[in-house]
Design goal:
This protein is an alpha+beta fold. The chain is built from four helices and four strands. It has one domain: Alpha-Beta Plaits (2-Layer Sandwich), CATH 3.30.70.640.
Length: 128
């Protein structure tokens, strides 16, 4: 993302509207609709979805946290939320910057479910 584009997002200067507010709603909707989008992903009772953004000079980082009371993990819901939120940012900003790239999509932590807990080990490549 060009630094001018990130600045437009921060200043609210994107003509389509409040980019982060729309991306947050899109991510929440996506988490709830994950079984409709991904074949063989079973429906769950999603208890809460939090979408957070970190805006830097050349990128916007999207983070999602999804909780459920079901006996399975909700990592697919969280990853779908991040994907759709990032796509929404691209859609809303593409008139100003078509060179944007949607980068790595990564599961950082998961608790619960049959497979138990998972926490990604930080590697030096992850910090770049």
């Amino acid at each position: 993302m060009q630094s001018e584009t990130a600045g437009m997002i921060v200043r609210g200067g994107v003509h389509k509207g409040d980019v982060l507010a729309v991306a947050r709603v899109a991510g929440i909707q996506a988490a709830k609709r994950t079984p409709d989008l991904i074949p063989l992903c079973h429906p769950l009772l999603v208890g809460s979805v939090f979408i957070n953004f970190t805006i830097e000079d050349l990128f916007v980082e999207v983070e999602a946290q999804v909780d459920t009371v079901d006996r399975t993990g909700v990592e697919m819901e969280a990853l779908t939320a991040c994907s759709v939120a990032a796509l929404t940012i691209y859609d809303m900003c593409k008139s100003a910057d078509r060179s944007m790239v949607i980068g790595d999509l990564t599961l950082w932590e998961k608790t619960g479910g049959r497979s138990g807990s998972y926490r990604r080990q930080v590697e030096t490549d992850d910090l770049v």
